[in-house]
Specification:
By secondary structure, the protein is of the alpha+beta class. The protein contains 20 helices and 9 strands. The chain has a 5-stranded antiparallel sheet, with no helix packed on it. It has a 4-stranded antiparallel sheet with strand order 1-9-8-7, covered by helices on one side.
Length: about 650
């Protein structure tokens, strides 16, 4: 397996270099055979990387502890799903997985666009192969997953206890896959700047791939929040940890890009913005990968410190210099075809959207790297905590939330105030009612304003669907029940976008509830003791010890009652894995009761079963996960292939004929 895997990576490295050369030469000489050879090189490199992945996965499944990476990440007592997850549980495996996803998506993109975007494809191939060259260089010469030990141990060290969780099966693959997915849109952007073909072709080719990268990374972030919520034990799901921050940055930039390209397609504007955003998204994705695996910034998500930082920084420096140079060289070709005619217009709304997202990304980036600057230029290492991010992110996201409600109602070029206010009247009325009701009930200004903004945005989304359904009902006689699916099918880009906006509104409700109204109390209890928090009574029933193949488990058993009625039972656990007895991990006891999450942490316990227990009441926490489900549905709606125009015309003709006969 070691020889097969390492051999495949070496050949892939050489083939990637060859592919870059023939792609560039073929494009410059208009040599079709060389161009085709470069495309085949992309597919060949991907196939070889998959061979290496299969070799490493086989080594894990067969417990081949001759490989240092396998011995350091797995053990015989681990369940099969954790053995497979150990594949990307370390630096070498995660880089190999990154390369595989980038290769697979690039191969698919090149195959689909090889004829329609023939002028761009050679340089797309050269760009994605350049990315693969860097990662393959790391895997072959710096951090190989196929390094052999002089003597194979009887058993491996096993996976880090914090990683032995169902979240390990989902969060890292989506997060790393999201980072790698930015390779494809970056390849098209670089190709457009190299060739000077800066019209609508590269934007048309890139839009769906940008959505793929944005969506995969978004799912990865949501899964990471869920994992942190039930494992880390601080009562929350997002702590503004440096690794969380850098993972969020490319998603923010990609979100701005997905909105901004609409303006370029419709009005020929914001071209420099779009090129900068997609290049910036790729750079931030690579930076995030580097931060997770280099140990450069201290984080609860960093499980290794290595010497790869110099190589990543060098690669990033090259990408930044080349990208900025090309952007400066092509800036004339990226000039806007039109100017913004009015401050109150859809173009201005999208520009403001860009400014909000990039301002938030810059603030988070600066807060994340500030400790490094303080250490280099000062005598102490200063850190930036959650209060800074909350104070910066809160107002920006509130403005973004309001913009989601106003933006769809703005007209291109110029919007008159009277029609705009008429379109918003029901949403404004709903927001005003919400402001009064929440103001009386909650008596807290900031969450009241935020919830009213959510109501306004949701009201606008509902109004847009009602308006679209009414148009279909009046024009073709379609019922309101079937009109909504028809809107999604025939204009999935617009109405799928509204679903994603709805997901953000639902997420916002959960964030507002947990951030402003969380309750926390610490109890030291003996079996049979009861304590109150909020309007709940917590009864401690003692500890239960169990032994599994992997180690020992201690669980605190609790009853949760409200108004004298038992609502639920909770177990909060601590795991002691074999070989890691001094590094216990936790699985929080979390149960939903009404609109609240009851969140229980077992901190300490004594031989007489006296336990120290932390209890959190997290209002509306479930809305965050519901928002995640809506986000996934909206993403699939956006990516669903639109009906072909000719099919739509045939269906429309048939329906009109049927209506006339009736």
């Amino acid at each position: 397996m070691a020889q097969l895997g390492s051999g495949a990576l070496i050949v892939a490295f050489a083939l990637a270099l060859y592919g870059i050369a023939v792609s560039v030469i073929g494009a410059r000489r208009h040599a079709t055979e060389l161009i085709n050879s470069g495309l085949r090189a992309v597919w060949g490199v991907t196939a070889l990387i998959i061979v290496a992945v299969a070799a490493l996965a086989t080594a894990f499944l067969t417990h081949n502890f001759q490989l240092a990476y396998v011995a350091g990440r797995s053990s015989r007592d681990m369940p099969l799903h954790y053995v497979l997850a150990a594949f990307y549980g370390g630096q070498e495996g995660s880089l190999l997985y990154w390369s595989m996803i980038a290769g697979i998506l690039s191969s698919i993109a090149i195959f689909l666009h090889r004829k329609r975007d023939r002028d761009l494809i050679p340089y797309v191939a050269a760009t994605v192969l350049s990315t693969e060259v860097f990662f393959l260089f790391m895997l072959v010469f710096i951090s190989s997953p196929f390094t052999l030990l002089p003597v194979a141990p009887v058993d491996g060290a096993g996976l880090n206890p914090l990683l032995r969780d169902p979240g390990m099966m989902m969060h890292p693959p989506f997060l790393l896959g999201g980072f790698a997915s930015f390779t494809v849109p970056f390849g098209f952007a670089m190709s457009a700047m190299i060739t000077g073909r800066l019209g609508d072709g590269w934007i048309r080719a890139i839009r769906r791939w940008a959505l793929v990268a944005w969506g995969i990374l978004g799912i990865g972030l949501l899964l990471g929040a869920w994992w942190a919520y039930h494992v880390l034990g601080w009562g929350g799901y997002w702590g503004w940890d440096p690794v969380e921050n850098v993972a969020l940055l490319p998603w923010l930039v990609a979100t701005a890009f997905i909105h901004s390209i609409i303006v370029q397609e419709r009005r020929g504007m914001l071209k420099v913005w779009n090129m900068s955003l997609i290049v910036g998204g790729y750079i931030l994705a690579v930076f995030a990968t580097f931060t997770v695996r280099s140990g450069l910034i201290q984080s609860v998500h960093t499980f290794a410190t290595s010497s790869i930082g110099t190589y990543f920084l060098s690669y990033l420096a090259i990408v930044i210099v080349v990208s900025i140079g090309l952007l400066a060289y092509r800036v004339k070709g990226l000039r806007a075809e039109r100017a913004i005619e009015s401050v109150v217009s859809r173009e201005s709304g999208f520009l403001l959207n860009n400014l909000l997202f990039t301002a938030l990304a810059f603030a988070i980036f600066w807060g994340t790297i500030f400790p490094l600057f303080s250490e280099v230029f000062g005598s102490t290492k200063l850190t930036v905590g959650p209060p800074f991010y909350n104070q910066v992110a809160g107002p920006i996201m509130l403005a973004r939330l309001i913009l989601m409600g106003v933006g769809p109602l703005l007209a291109w070029r110029h919007t008159s105030w009277r029609p705009l206010l008429r379109s918003m009247r029901w949403s404004l009325m709903a927001a005003a009612v919400a402001l009064v009701i929440f103001g009386v009930v909650l008596r807290n200004t900031l969450p009241v304003i935020a919830l009213a903004a959510v109501v306004f945005t949701v009201g606008t989304i509902i109004a847009e669907y009602v308006r679209g359904a009414r148009v279909r009902h009046r024009s073709i006689g379609e019922s309101y029940v079937t009109a909504i699916p028809s809107l999604l099918r025939k204009n999935n880009r617009r109405y799928g976008g509204y679903i994603v906006h709805l997901a953000m509104a639902v997420l916002a409700i959960g964030i507002i509830g947990t951030h402003f109204f969380q309750t926390e109390r610490q109890f030291t209890m003996k079996p049979g003791d009861s304590a109150t928090i909020s309007n709940y009574t917590i009864t401690y029933n003692g500890l239960r010890d169990t032994t599994t193949k992997e180690g020992d488990v201690v669980a605190a058993l609790l009853d949760v009652s409200q108004n004298g009625k038992l609502k639920t039972q909770i177990e909060s656990k601590r795991f002691f894995y074999t070989g890691y007895e001094n590094q216990p991990t936790a699985r929080m006891g979390i149960k939903s009761v009404g609109l609240n999450d009851i969140y229980v942490v077992l901190d300490r316990w004594e031989n007489d079963q006296t336990a120290s227990i932390r209890v959190y009441i997290n209002p509306l926490a479930n809305w965050i996960w519901w928002g995640g489900y809506v986000f996934v549905f909206g993403l699939f709606t956006l990516l669903w292939p639109a009906a072909r125009p000719e099919r739509q015309r045939v269906r429309s003709t048939v329906k009109k004929a049927a209506l006339s006969e009736a």
